[in-house]
Amino acid sequence: MGKYIFKRILSGFLTIIVLITCCFFLMHAIPGSPFSKGERTVPEAVMQRLNEKYGLDKPLHEQYFKYLENIAHGDFGISYKNSSVQVNDLITRGFPISARIGALAVVFSVLVGITLGIISAIKRGSLFDGIAMVIATVGVCVPLFVLSVLLLYLFAGVLKWLPTYGLSTWKHYILPVTCLSFSPIAYIARMTRSSMLEVMQQDYIRTARAKGVSEFLVICKHGLRNAVLPVVTYLGTLIANLLTGSFIVERLFAIPGLGKYFVDSITARDYNVIMGVTIFLGIFVVICNLVVDVAYCVIDPRVKLDD
Hints:
Layout: H1 2-29, H2 44-53, H3 60-72, H4 87-122, H5 127-141, H6 144-158, H7 171-199, H8 203-210, H9 215-227, H10 229-243, H11 247-252, H12 258-268, H13 271-299
Helix pairs in contact: 1-13, 4-5, 4-7, 4-10, 4-12, 4-13, 5-7, 6-7, 7-9, 7-10, 8-9, 10-13, 12-13
């Protein structure tokens, strides 16, 4: 396993280097300047002094290696729009909020999605199975933005049951978490159902039943443990995306998470913030995928990681 983990870490490191390189050069290839103010033209002398202050007057390759050096020390730089604000501070401030909502969404998605998938597989062809698959199909097809607006309008605008913005009380978490969870629940339910239908036809399931093992243990201990592997694969990306924040949901519900800073930085053309948040998300995705790959051998000892 040690050799496999080393290969995955090396692969993840190279992925992060490629990500940093692409982000850096794409940001510098965008026409205009982070110091531009809409249609207003910044005087040439002022622009020159700003470029000198932030080191943007140096050759591009020097800026690139300097940026790599700063990232190696954990420094994502400062905001071009507010020089008193560090990108690290924005991430430190926004990530815990996004992670809190994301963690709730992950737990809710896994519990509901797996439960729906198992029941649908057991009751294949029943009314419950049909309703669950319709919901799963809608969850896959309907965009997050449309779903969020509909739920916001219905439960906050028409029924007035839930608040529309902020995270002051537990009620403020219901709509954002539900919106984030809807699509993952659909994917997890469909994957779990398909895997359970295949697993429940295996010989060892019939053997367990022949030995008199209760149906509950057959499903949960023998069936689910093998059927859950595709879900574990999906969890790597899901956890990374939800814990680092959904830009659409945070924007709609005025949540001061990582997504809010990212959207604001795009609007303001704040290149350092854009690159910092993107690279942070990339690193988080790589780490989550590594953890999921290693978790395979814990869930299913038949998976060999030494190859």
